[in-house]
Amino acid sequence: MNSKPSKVSKMKKSSYIAVFAVFALLLVGLELTNAVTCSVLQLAPCLSAFTSSNPPTTACCDKLREQRPCLCQYLLNPNLKGYVNSPNAKKVANKCDVSTPNC
Predict the structure, then answer these.
(1) Domains and their CATH numbers in the chain
(2) Whole-angstrom Cα distance, residue 25 to residue 19?
(3) pLDDT for 46-86, tens place per residue?
């Protein structure tokens, strides 16, 4: 018996690899389109709620949810930590149903 793989077997293997590569690229592309740009300026709609007793607006809650993946970055920044970790900011996050991450 010949133990060498046939041309058909090699072509099938190559086809599977090509399909997998295309699938992987599509997944990476989807991740890139869903990536969040971390910018504390995106939380501008929350400024009033963070600095007063005003309730958060819908726009504030939407932005806070959008920026959720960035909260650790903000908490680890000494210039932002006091704002993001303030009692008012915690109240706003709670009212918007956004959990504060453990960083």
Answers:
(1) 40-96 (1.10.110.10)
(2) 10
(3) 999 999 999 999 999 999 999 999 999 999 999 999 888 89
